[in-house]
Amino acid sequence: MLQAVGSRPNAGEWPRVCAGDVRELMPDLDRVAEEMIEAIQCGVPEYARPLDDTYRASVRHAVTHAVHEFADRLIDPGAPHDRAAQVFRNIGRNEASEGRSLEPLQNALRLGARVAWRRLGQRAARGAMDSHVLASLGEAIFLYLDELADACSRGYAEATAEVAGEMERRRRRLLDLIVVDPPASHDAIADLAQAAQWVLPRQVAAVALEPRSPGHLGPLPALPPDVLLDLTRRDPCALVPDPDGPGRAQVIERGLRGWTGAVGPAVPLDRAGSSLRWARQALALAKRGMAPAPAGIVRCAGQLATLAILADEELARTLAAIRLAPLRPLRPVQQETLSQTLLAWLQSGGNAREVARRLHIHPQTARYRLRQLQLLFGAALHEPDARFELEIALRAERLLGPADEALGMLPRRDDARG
Length: 418
Hints:
Globin-like, Arc Repressor Mutant, subunit A, 6-stranded mixed beta sheet
């Protein structure tokens, strides 16, 4: 009969069992392993692969190895015992790579432990094992079960992190291929999108990003999983599929809290680079106070005219300098007053009463200012192309300030006609 030796171990320590008594169990180990294998393949559907000889051999190797190392540990608890742990760590990695959860593996471990406990109980019932030894072996079984489960979890976590890291690298590379101008070939993008498990959308919007606190990356954006994101770039950005879908804009804005950003216009996938370029321009304008950014986010769709006017600031200033030259001899206050009046008149279709309403002035005052403008600008106020350029010039000057630098490049004109 087996005899337990030593006192009850501390939690986590293997119980001591006389080596000679443990060896009495050795002849039964292979039969116990076979019972475990059968129980696992019958009780865990994920492991029932009767036609897969390689998989069955892997299960047999793991179970047999674990059973024999368990016996070796009982004989010599201080001996090296990392072989089974490595086997089950690899099993955990394999479960992750095959896309399964740890639940089937945990069920298999419990079934194996149940078989071992049942066989020990049968020995005790025949009087071949002392109850104290049974208790010690039962404790050892559950300690061993915890060790193997922990090894599986570590392997699973490692593989999951590696898969996630590889998937993230693929998604960042995919983002690069899409937003580069010109973009990579459609086939290259499609192949990498498949590898990154990203469905190619018909339309996208690029998002230019900056942390709100310089030098400090805020909380990671909480964006939907189909949004490609790379914060490691020199110019952090994201790519939003189907940006005009229901509620999509609100979800993106909420997810970007803690970041300043500009959402580019919705464009076909092969023009994503343009969307990102415009988003960066809008973000730069917002930093200069030239584009409204509620909640820290600029939407290019509402700023396209501003982006077009300021696509070439030097050209916009030069246009303003040429078209608004008749105002330059006036005092600054007069220039400001008549600029406001002229813009209101252009925007209201030449209606004096509408000008008065927009500027909150008396209609008679509006008419007086308009007569001054007629004297200054003459026929230009009645030429469609000149009026169009005047409105662009006034909008540009409102955004950029007086075009003094551009004026320096132009010859002074005493003639107020333009």
